[in-house]
Specification:
Layout (H helix, E strand, L loop, with lengths): L21 H12 L13 H21 L9 H14 L3 E2 L12 E4 L2 E3 L14 E10 L2 E10 L5 H19 L7 H14 L3 E2 L5 E3 L6 E5 L16 E4 L2 E3 L5 E3 L7 E3 L5 E3 L2 E5 L4 E5 L1
Antiparallel strand pairs: 1-4, 2-4, 3-12, 4-5, 6-10, 7-8, 9-14, 10-13, 11-12, 14-15
Length: 289
């Protein structure tokens, strides 16, 4: 719907459009006229939403900080899940994964060749040499924070340890390339370049996503791309950077029995780190990590 110059701005500030987001929208329109894919207003968060998402991100980071000392050899992944749920509720929040599209647990715990969506189990005890991803999403006052971390259990092989370290570096390089008025392709190119230079591949079918008002929002965020391509990044966008980096080939498959767990097709290990970020006027802010 067209907004008049003197109408109230779409962002909810209460200001007149001409004094608020009109020049911002005109800049986006200029990029669109030059052939760029641009975000619609629903993707761009208001100041009130950003504050809510920022707090949800802070609480989500608290959950990951809380569970970190317990990710050790001998830990039962189902018990870790229970601990995460209890602590999340203790700090006044809700675990977003629990019941999401039928998901049965409060967190995803993915070990070794599990790429993502690993379901905590009474039967799995973390053992020496495992690499583990803990992926938490937290709802705080209706807003969402989302992030994941990798952990090395005991005496991890040099090959696995390098995979974990390079994957973290991929996220950092992606973050450095994520800037206002750049594109998702800039981020994806930097991420994939570092992975391939180290002999790894990035999963193509699964990526990051808009996040904050809902668990999963537009845009879908791939981690393979070219500079200047993909959606334009503008202040107010919140999304995850979360490359899934495979030691071997990029191909994956879903467990036919549980309908959730994603494995590498060749059985080689995979690693993932995830940050929730906000595009600001002058850079990028990490909301959860």
């Amino acid at each position: 719907m067209k907004i008049g110059r003197n109408d109230k701005c779409w962002c909810g500030s209460g200001k007149k459009y001409k004094a608020c987001h009109m020049s911002f929208d005109n800049r986006i329109k200029d990029f669109q006229n030059r052939g760029f894919v641009v975000p619609h207003h629903g993707i761009i968060k208001t100041a009130e939403q950003i504050e809510g998402i920022r707090e949800a991100g802070r609480k989500n980071t608290m959950v990951l900080d809380y569970i970190t000392p317990y990710i050790v050899e001998g830990a039962n992944t189902a018990e870790l899940d229970r601990m995460i749920e209890a602590y999340t509720r203790e700090i006044g929040c809700i675990p977003a994964c629990l019941g999401y599209q039928g998901y049965p647990k409060s967190v995803c715990i993915s070990v070794n060749d599990i790429v993502c969506h690993g379901i905590p189990s009474e039967d799995y005890i973390l053992k020496d040499g495992d690499i583990v991803n803990i992926d938490c999403t937290t709802i705080c006052n209706g807003y969402y924070g989302d992030a994941s971390r990798m952990f090395c259990i005991g005496n991890v092989s040099e090959e696995k340890r390098k995979l974990v370290e390079v994957t973290k570096e991929c996220v950092e390089k992606a973050l450095a390339a994520t800037k206002p008025w750049g594109t998702l392709g800039d981020m994806a190119y930097a991420c994939n370049k570092h992975a391939t230079e180290n002999g790894y591949t990035i999963v193509r079918e699964i990526g990051g996503h808009g996040c904050g008002v809902e668990f999963h929002e537009d845009p879908w965020v791939g981690h393979i791309g070219q500079p200047g391509e993909g959606m334009l990044l503008v202040p107010g966008m919140t999304f995850t950077i979360e490359p899934m980096v495979n030691m071997g080939k990029p191909d994956v498959y879903q467990d036919a029995d549980d309908g959730w767990t994603i494995y590498t097709e060749d059985g080689l290990p995979s690693a993932q780190w995830e940050y929730l970020v906000l595009i600001t006027e002058d850079g990028t802010e990490i909301l959860s990590h």
